[in-house]
Design a protein that fits this description.
By secondary structure, the chain is α/β, with parallel strands linked by helices. Strand 3 and strand 4 form a beta hairpin.
Length: about 280
């Protein structure tokens, strides 16, 4: 009976499809298309997005291969599929825009999530010119750039690829309607064919030690250990503090500075920072 009720509830959801070949600019235009059709929820690459917020899922671009990315995007795996079903039941969207590279892909997503067939399909050719689509394809091919229709901070915490740039789009919905701002992130996925990219532990260590040298409160760095993870670095430091400075304030401010600078310079999220005051340095004389 519960399953029957869930299916009935999903039948009340209006599903819209936004279809176009990979790399033609669907994610770039997703928020615009949703807004123009009064749709608040988007399913794109394994994510359920409400306005600019990710409310469920992990980006399929995080997958280690193109094949795995497709599987995650169409919810082949039971865990992701059930999580998305629960989220749809929780948020009760009146309408959902589903992005796909083909009508068949959208059909697989609706089937896996027990959603009704699309009541309307918008094709990328309806909203983008040939020149715009060719430009998007060229960026994908030559630079490996993909767009996710959410702000950088929304994907940064669990994205293992490389965040290239945030993007803001200011657009009027139409004559007499209010404008809206859509934020997006340009990324290089984990599976990028353009080669591996890594940030050495040494880079994180050098940034932290450089900041220590510029601090009047810190006499020297005694030890630094960096452990890299796919989600970001863990940093451990032992320092000597000059006499006369508040130790707790020094540690707190230095920790915040390291986190801020590393995340700005590398776009990696610092997972953990431990700063230990091992000694007090007293100037002679």
């Amino acid at each position: 009976m519960q399953l029957f009720n869930n299916i009935n509830q999903n039948e009340e959801i209006k599903v819209y499809a936004f279809v176009g070949p990979s790399g033609t600019g669907k994610s770039y235009r997703a928020q615009m298309v949703a807004n123009e059709n009064n749709i608040s929820y988007i399913i794109d690459d394994g994510l359920l997005i409400n306005e600019n917020d990710v409310v469920c899922g992990v980006s399929a671009k995080k997958a280690p291969s193109k094949v795995e990315t497709v599987k995650k995007a169409i919810f082949v795996y039971e865990k992701e599929r059930n999580e998305m079903k629960r989220a749809i039941k929780k948020y009760k969207p009146e309408a959902i825009l589903i992005l796909g590279t083909s009508d068949g892909m959208v059909e697989k997503i609706t089937q896996n999530l027990d959603l009704p067939k699309p009541c309307k399909t918008i094709y990328i050719q309806d909203v983008a010119t040939e020149t715009e689509m060719e430009t998007a394809k060229r960026m994908r091919t030559t630079q490996g750039k993909h767009v996710i229709p959410v702000p950088t901070f929304e994907i940064k915490k669990d994205f293992s690829g490389y965040i290239l740039d945030p993007l803001q789009i200011f657009k009027f919905k139409g004559k007499g309607n209010d404008p809206y701002m859509a934020e997006k992130s340009i990324i290089r996925p984990t599976f990028s064919y353009m080669g591996n990219f890594t940030i050495s532990d040494t880079v994180f260590r050098q940034i932290a030690e450089y900041l220590a040298k510029r601090s009047d409160a810190i006499y020297k760095v005694m030890r630094t250990r960096v452990e890299s993870t796919p989600e970001g670095p863990n940093i451990y430091m032992e320092i000597s503090i000059n006499y006369g400075y508040n130790i707790l304030d020094t540690l707190r401010e230095f920790k915040q500075k390291i986190k801020r600078e590393i995340e700005i310079l590398t776009t990696m999220t610092v997972q953990d920072i431990t700063i230990v005051a091992k000694e007090i340095h007293i100037k002679e004389g």
